[in-house]
Amino acid sequence: MKLYLKTKDYSVSGETFGLYWDADLDMLVTKPQPKDLAPYYQSEAYISHTDAKSSFTDKLYQAVKRKNLRNKLQLVDNQENKTESLLDIGAGTGDFLAMAQKSGYTIAGVEPNVKARELAMAKGVELNSSLKELAKQKFQVITLWHVLEHLPNLEEQIGSFISLLEDDGTLIIAVPNFKSFDAKYYKGHWAGFDVPRHLWHFSKTAITKLFQQHEMEVISIRPMWFDAFYVSMLSEKYKGNRLYLISAFFVGLWSNLKAIFTKEHSSLIYILKRKK
């Protein structure tokens, strides 16, 4: 594979990694991929595993997260088939499942991080540490919100969670899009790369081809509008820009405006079902 660019872990370790382009799938692969990824998540800087509200960035993240949670649940509600059972993989601190539970869903979740599971438990959401604990169950909807890019042994993992989906079930996957304007603008500083926690970096072609191998097809693609602003804000901070909020607003706005025509938003939600 050809080197696409070099970037570094701005959140935790400061280590440098390469992103290599897989031409067959049109996706990027992080190299090297650490054998033990756990230390790269053990930081308050990794906000998905905390409910931190100490800094302005934390507070902004939590505010955007609340809005996104409502949008995510509405997307699940809007699926054609009556949805009762919901599995969220990479559930973090359990906010999405807590909201779904209050709305009447039978929920289950997977989260390998111990601290995140403890925070979820305090919200009344009991999470499993791995998919193996759910091996005999089936779900009408399975969601992965910015999780697929974190999973080692990608092909094996995809097969594992698809096996838990009802025949007429729906798979909903949100991932960053390295074809977006903000990704191309920030290059190695783009927060959406988030190496080495993000092992894979997907395009529309990559998602289509990866899931075709498992008899799944993309039936709809939705944008995540807020991501362009939040990712741009982090990217500007990585660049050391003291006026990061102002710059991020304009880059995020321009990215979203361009995506109206290119359909290449900062992050995309893919809705998939089994081929008929």
TrEMBL record:
What start-end ranges are recorded for coiled-coil regions in this protein? none
User: In Gene Ontology terms, what is a biological process of this protein?
Assistant: methylation
Family matches, as Pfam families: Methyltransf_23 (PF13489)
An example molecular function term from Gene Ontology annotations: methyltransferase activity
State the CDD domains in the record. AdoMet_MTases (cd02440)
Entry keyword set? Methyltransferase, Transferase
* Documented EC number(s): 2.1.1.-
What protein name does the entry list? Class I SAM-dependent methyltransferase
- Which organism does this sequence originate in? Flagellimonas iocasae
